[in-house]
Amino acid sequence: MSLIDNKRNKPEMNHVIKNQRNAHNSSSPTTMAERQRQRFVDKATKVSAKYLRRLAELPGAPDAMEPFFKVLQDIYVDLKNVAKPADTKIVGTYCVMVPDELIYAVGAQPVKLCSGSYTAFAIGDDLVPRDACPLIKAVMGFQAMEVMPIYDDCALMVVPITCDCKKKMAGMLKQRVPTYALHVPTAKSEDRDMEQYVQELYQLIPELEAVTGQTISYQSLAESIDAMGFAQYQMSKFNEFKKHVPALIKGTHAMALMNAFSYLPVEQWSQQLHRLNQELARRKKDKHYV
């Protein structure tokens, strides 16, 4: 059953949200901190459920989109952890400048943690300097509330230092969880800039290896590069379908599948995107537009 089957799925989605709300409220918070945490959970999951419900009600989503919707539901409404083998460590990253290939090569699972939550921003606003950007405030809000497993279960967080706020954030995160600051050159036009960045990556590798106890080998790095390359190939094919006029898929649905990349193993995400591309190819052939 497709998630975008409006008449059948809207009651089902409402039922899921109601059950989630009951689960969050099953025990009455007693302290002020617990009450604040409960309010945060209630509001954050309510907002997430609202946007996911809009996705469910938006017509035209391919059937292959459903697993992408589900992972967003799992993470932001049901507050579950990422799907992974039990012994796999999670490495949280705060920018695309942290190569996922290195993380996969040591047997860990990368999770992107940059946040745009207004609910978390309101919490973080009291924790960080006044002139910090909304992104930093939202990140620290999520970290302080300790309600999302994707934040709480990170064995290591890697923060690329791309601005003064990220530098401050890395210092604050380090007081709570193991954190590595990856210094990124401010320019990339000169060879020395790239050499500096490469040296930073070499220094990151031992930190990642210490997390899992596995050493990066030529084979493990080659396999992770191949896996990421396949994901990029499928994404390039998807972008061609996305540019088609008349449209084969809505931009909102495209954003959902790209966001889901942050919380799925790369092989699983790539295979599902491959299925979606096949479905879009059939739509193009049948002139099925949205």
Mean pLDDT: 87
Helix and strand pattern = HHHEHEHHHEHEHHHH
Low-confidence regions: 1-26
Proportion of residues in helical segments: 55-70%
- Count of extended strands: 4
The total count of helices amounts to 12
Lateral arrangement of strands in the main beta sheet:
2-1-3-4
Radius of gyration: 20 Å
Structural class: alpha/beta
Distance between the termini: 19 Å
Strand count, sense and barrel status of the largest sheet are: 4 strands, parallel
- The fraction of residues in strands falls at 5-15%
Task: Write up this protein.
This protein is α/β, with parallel strands linked by helices and 290 residues long. Among the domains are: 71 residues, no CATH class; 67 residues, no CATH class. Helix content is 60%, strand content 7%. It contains 12 helices and 4 strands, in the order H-H-H-E-H-E-H-H-H-E-H-E-H-H-H-H. Strands 2-1-3-4 form a 4-stranded parallel sheet, sandwiched between helices. Strand 1, helix 4 and strand 2 form a beta-alpha-beta unit. It is globular, with a radius of gyration of 20 Å. It starts with 5 loop residues before the first helix and ends with a helix. The N terminus is likely disordered.
